[in-house]
Amino acid sequence: MKLLVTGGAGFIGTNFIIYWLSHHPEDTVVNFDKLTYAGNLNNLTSVEKNPQYRFVQGDICDAKAVGAVMDGIDIVVHFAAESHVDRSILEAAPFVMTNVVGTQVLLDAALKAKVRRFHHVSTDEVFGSLELGTPDTFSERTLYNPRSPYSASKAGSDHLVRAYYHTFGLPVTITNCSNNYGPYQFPEKLIPLVITNLVEGKKVPVYGDGLNVRDWLYVEDHCRAIDAVLSDGKVGETYCVGGTTEDINNITIVKKIISLMGKDESSIEFVKDRLGHDRRYAVDWSKIKNDLGWKPQHDFDTWLTRTVEWYRANEPWWRDVKSGAYQTYYTTQYQGTV
Ligand code: NAD
Ligand code: TDX
Fold first, then answer.
1. How far does the centroid of ligand 1 lie from the alpha carbon of residue 321, in Å?
2. Is residue 109 part of a domain?
3. Residue 298: is it exposed, middle or buried by C-beta count within 10 angstroms (0-12/13-18/19+)?
4. What domain range includes position 154?
5. Is 57 a member of any domain?
6. How distant, in Å, are the alpha carbons of 89, 99, 124, 238 from that of 150?
7. What is the per-residue pLDDT across 244-289, written as a single tens digit (0 to 9) for each?
8. What CATH number is given to the structural domain containing 49?
9. Tell me, what DSSP letter sits at residue 336?
10. 150 lies in a domain?
11. Mutate which of 4, 11, 91, 307 to test ligand 1's pocket (most atoms within 8 Å of Cβ)?
12. Does any ligand 2 atom lie closer than 6 A to the CB of residue 205?
């Protein structure tokens, strides 16, 4: 089987390629990535010499490049996206371009190449926000209600993927997954930002009252979920994927990391809240469990600890990422407060 992985130099794409080549060594993987600020080939040194792996630099909005790389592909796994909510608030245009237009360009090419499966990697954020203290959850039946430019652009891409299934018969599947954590996550996202700031002796910024809730999933469990959908998922279906944390809020996570790292809670700095900050996410993943037998295998406390250890052991990786253009983003985003 020949896979085209878009966005394979980012956080989840990297973990997916490493996972796939070790679990399906007979397959070949083409990684197509623009290498934006979030794409980093240093993530993939462990596989770069593997003859089953090939990297092609390119933009999913570039129809010619996408058409060329699609040649002979059996399965597309589409991760490439602008993925950070805060950046979408600073500037929405790249989100619409890559997430909506880029997805449509890929869908056209996949249709033309008659691929056996187009798997679209999406997010639980398309469903909007839940109230704190309620038992409500997101499921495959939840109506779309995106509230940030990021989630609106991901919702747009989900609709296009389903439209190509219904209109043209493209064999698609979609996963809507909750917040991932683990190795190679770009340190603009909460968990790696907190760990790396603490190593650097900086304050850690907590938005608003810190009581917002996310449904955290270790990245390898997300890769396993996509694997399950590719092998046994039903074409045209959507599967919600979520973690094992029960309403754990941001401040609790920050305090856990501070304690794991032997630091002091005086490192916490409450800063201005994110505009339109979604309050709570919680995913009901019973469909993928009942239909495909998937469930998370990595518990939060153990794998948060291992994630902290990974960032400690890979300081040159994140120090390199945090240099250069990252500094400009950090200053704009946090306005000198941390
Ligand atoms: P990331 O920002 O770490 O990586 C994105 C990758 O896409 C980068 O390598 C970047 O270079 C590449 N890319 C961006 N624009 C491109 C373009 N125009 N053409 C080609 N490549 C391009 O993102 P991530 O956290 O790994 O997320 C991957 C996917 O999973 C995204 O679609 C995201 O919406 C989805 N998702 C993420 C999470 C999460 O918690 N991180 C949860 C659910 C779903
Ligand atoms: O400095 C911060 N302080 C803070 O309090 C940052 C960066 C975040 N936060 C809060 C905002 C959220 O409530 O932490 C929570 C998690 O924030 P992010 O790591 O930015 O993730 P989130 O906005 O929830 O979105 C993530 O999960 C769903 C990914 O970035 C998306 O790509 C994915 O679709």
1. 16
2. yes
3. buried
4. 2-181+217-241
5. yes
6. 8, 8, 12, 20
7. 988 999 999 999 999 999 999 999 999 999 999 999 999 999 999 9
8. 3.40.50.720
9. T
10. yes
11. 11
12. yes
